[in-house]
Amino acid sequence: MRTIRFLLALLILAIPAASFGQVGLRIAIGPPPLPIYDQPICPGDGYLWTPGYWAYDDSVSDYYWVPGTWVEAPEAGFLWTPGYWGWGDGGYFFNDGYWGLNVGFYGGINYGFGYFGDGYGGGRWDHGHFFYNRSVNNVDDRNIHNVYNERVEHRGIDNHISYNGGKGGIEAHPSSAQEAAAKDRHIPPVEAQTRHAQAARGNPEQRAGLSHGNPATAATAKPGEFGEHAAAAPRETGEASRAVAGGAAPDTRTVVHPKDLGPIARPAPANSGNAKADKKYEQQQDKLIARQTQERQKLQQKQEAEHQQKANADNQKLEQKHQQQTQQLAQRHTAQQQSLQSRAPQARPSGGGGRK
Asked: Which of 289, 291, 302 is nearest to 258 (CA)?
């Protein structure tokens, strides 16, 4: 019996985390900020928008971006509740999205395009037909006639934070209605969505580490259309979340020199109840910010010297080199801040954002 249990344990460990919808997988560092992108035009009647999200590939220990895409609803009347990252038991875990008659809790994350953190304002079902709200969706009313215009009032914060709870995460909790929606009949992601996510996982250009948080394909018109003309690349990273503040600039894709980076932000002070541990953490933050500031100044001086030495050289090529150097510096500083914040003193008992 003991041998059988041992073999079963090995089998479970051998199964990729993605097979379980990442249930039970805990990541010490939260996902990067949500990239900003344009929504592709709706490909046809009956397609519903499913926003993009960061997933995690434990085989390479990196996040990867699953592009937002239009998906045919599995049943008339069903809406999509996006998945989200939450905090609990000392790490970040992913809550899978699902189809249901009502939109449930998705962490308070502002995914845009009608998913502003609470409910869905992108459209509604009426007598078996889905009507699109053009105020938040890219719909061609010459081909799709069941449309309407309705301004969506929302309190979603446009900060691009991609997770709930933990250091710098969205502080939102499910309402009673959302808790009830979580108990309704659900349909898991359809096959097209599963294939879409698998294609993203297998594409190195979608990984956060290689793309510096700006995946090659941010959104597609239909699932799996990577590299097609209908795919959309991210526009800019926008404001960095509090979780990664201190390294990433508001728009690292267009920043060329360190002097153009935004100021190094200090994370919120630790308040674990352990004064000694909190003070030590603050001192570590001070040292890290001082070192990063010095590294910025050093790189800036080096780049200015290169400009003086190569006054008659190809300036465009030199600027491209400097932009890459600055991006790499910002990315490295972001990773350093994330690593330090993941070791911040935690209050006991912790609570966090448990799975719903």
From this structure: 302
The pLDDT value recorded for residue 255 is 65
Rg of the chain over all Cα atoms, to the nearest angstrom = 22
3-class secondary-structure state, position 291: helix
Contact 354/88 with Cβ under 8 angstroms? yes
pTM above 0.85, yes or no: no
What is the dihedral sign for C-alpha 185, 186, 191, 193? positive
Q: Which ranges of the chain does DSSP label H, i.e. alpha helix?
A: 2-14, 176-182, 191-201, 208-211, 275-309, 315-341
The rounded distance, in Å, linking the Cα atoms of 131 and 147 is 5
Find how far residue 241's CA is from the centre of its chain. 10
Task: Give the model confidence (pLDDT) of 200-258 as tens digits.
Answer: 999 999 999 888 888 999 999 999 887 654 566 676 443 333 233 222 333 333 567 88
Residues 83, 106 contacting (CB under 8 angstroms): yes
Strands 47-50 and 68-72: what pairing? antiparallel
Structure tokens at 295: 């590294």
Q: Which position has the token pair 């304002």?
A: 121
Rounded Cα gap, residues 88 and 346, in angstroms: 12
User: By C-alpha distance, which of 43, 69, 106, 107 is closest to 190?
Assistant: 69
> Per the omega criterion (within 30 degrees of 0), is the bond before 33 cis?
no
Q: What DSSP designation does 3 have? A: H
